[in-house]
């Protein structure tokens, strides 16, 4: 749901960051499956060899960062091209691509470049695998290069044969699996898109930092990042900037529970 980088061909001035033609070797791409959570499957046994028993969360754990593209009204569905995600009768796909400027793509390349590993929900993983994962010559692209070279983890109960190298499907309860992953690896674990997974991670208190890229558009329909009725949380704004094209970047860290006004002002007659 809502791949975070442009996952389909971009306008000419963004082409250095956009996926090129599929790999001529005919590398298979994952088939569509149901839902995002649970299920053991590994495409590379060496990834499983590094698994360690669950340990309670403590200092020094891997930083988990979510990176999400949203409209002003919070929509994250179908930002790439019109046919990227039509679930629920969504007909306004491709709303972000015309607004992506050069600075946004440069900064996204920097964000991907600092990741030590990636975590996906199943749908976003399949979108990425069919585009960035099928790119020929990924080492020359600042988004594709880290995606290809670094470990990728997918939370899914239905994906059994991931076709993208260095992919591990996390087993068991998703919250426990992510806690274990954070405890046994250093650096930064990035979640791009993956709305259903992000909502679960937020509810479990597993997100250390949130990067929101807000585009100057009201989409008016589609899946929002957060549901209309869900857990609340305060946020600390640690960075904010805007690109020349009007895309705003906000970096937040969780700050406990929100404070609500408790006093009712006196009514005037």
TrEMBL record:
Identify the InterPro entries for this entry.
Answer: DHFR-like_dom_sf, RibDG_C, Riboflavin_Biosynth_HTPR
Give the start-end ranges of region Disordered: 1-60
> Which residues, by range, are in coiled-coil regions?
none
Q: Which Gene3D superfamilies match?
A: Dihydrofolate Reductase, subunit A
Where would I find the Bacterial bifunctional deaminase-reductase C-terminal domain in this sequence? 68-247
Give one Pfam family, short name only.
RibD_C
Q: Supply the name of the protein.
A: Bacterial bifunctional deaminase-reductase C-terminal domain-containing protein
